Amino acid sequence: MIAAVEKFNPLLPETNEIIYGALSFIVLYVVLSKVALPGIRATLQARELKIRSELEAAERTRTEAQQVLDDYRRQLADARHEAARIIEGARRMADDARRELIAKAESEAAEVRDRARADLAATVAQIRADLQRQVADLAITLAEKVVEHSLDREAQRGLIDRYIEQVGAVPAGSRS
Q1: End-to-end alpha carbon distance in the chain
Q2: CA 78 from chain center: how many Å?
């Protein structure tokens, strides 16, 4: 009976089932390795190549993006330097223009002062000449009235002009 109990083990399959199962597995393995396995390998290789190419493309894109970013930053820095140079140039031009305008205004003011001085000197000379003529005419008229006859006007005028020049030559502080 012990032998009968050993034959009826529900966990152990029958020998013929093991043989049929093993043969079925081998046939199925051979069929799958010849038919399905090359397709699966090709699919896996294609997927691997696709992933690699996408990774390489992503790396190229990242590199290109980094180059574009570096170019952008360089251009931005160049633009900032150019803007600073333009601003500095404009400041220098404004300073130069301001200096030129100040110099021009100062020279024009000096010219106006010089013209005013020249006009004043000419006016003073004209007033002195007019005053000398009037004094000479007045002196002749007074002399004629004093002498009561007509004197030679030219001779009298010469005398009076000399007298006025002598009086004009005396400094203002020494006259009394």
Answers
A1: 179
A2: 12
Checking phi first, is residue 70 left (phi over 0); if not, alpha (psi -120 to 50) or beta?
alpha
CA-angle at 74, arms to 73 and 75, nearest 5°: 90
Tell me which of 67-81, 122-136, 154-168 is least confident.
Answer: 154-168
Query: What residue has token string 């990242």?
Result: 62
d(CA 89, CA 120): 45
- Written as six digits, the tokens of 34 are 């010849």
Structure tokens at 74: 């360089």
Read off the pLDDT band of 152 (50, 70, 90).
confident
Amino acid at 105: A
